[in-house]
Write a structure and sequence with these properties.
Order of helices and strands: EEHEHEHEHEHH
Radius of gyration: 14 Å
Low-confidence stretches: 6-18, 67-73
Number of helices: 6
Number of strands: 6
Length: about 160
């Protein structure tokens, strides 16, 4: 099942140019889920970087707390971030908030995924700026729904 933000989805200039292979950061504390998401995205011709938790994702993105400012050029370029909601240390919702607070990364689409269908959680994430909320386990058809974000990189 898929929940999408009210802004219509693919509006705005959200994707950076990366030749013909969009770059996705996949964040999940569960190794099996992380590998599944990675495989599905690679099947859709994406470059995939994985992180096992929100803190590692922030480090990769150049937003870790020991980095005062992400404007120094150390920000990793990604076209889409897909993250699990329930993770130890930092939830996907908290990661989403940190990304949307960043002047450099706020335009990068963030998709939240969870195995739990909790309406208040879903609406909270969408209100905070998530593009979509997807229920796990993800399938290839779910990844196809992300293509409007990923195709922007190929044009």
């Amino acid at each position: 099942m898929l929940y999408q933000s009210m802004d219509g989805g693919c509006s705005g200039d959200m994707a950076a140019e990366f030749g013909d292979e969009p770059h996705v950061l996949a964040v999940d504390d569960n190794l099996i889920d992380r590998k599944l998401v990675e495989k599905l995205l690679k099947n859709s011709s994406c470059k995939v970087t994985t992180a096992e938790n929100g803190l590692r994702a922030l480090e990769y993105l150049g937003l870790a707390s020991d980095k005062r400012n992400a404007l120094d050029g150390t920000v990793s370029k990604v076209n889409l971030i897909i993250t699990d909601y329930c993770m130890p240390g930092m939830t996907g919702y908290e990661l989403l908030k940190k990304i949307k607070e960043s002047s450099v990364l706020r335009e990068v689409p963030v998709v939240i995924m969870s195995s739990e269908n909790v309406p208040t959680r879903i609406s909270q994430c969408l209100q905070e700026g998530a593009q979509m909320f997807m229920l796990k386990p993800l399938k290839q058809s779910d990844v196809k729904r992300l293509e409007c974000y990923l195709m922007r990189c190929r044009s």
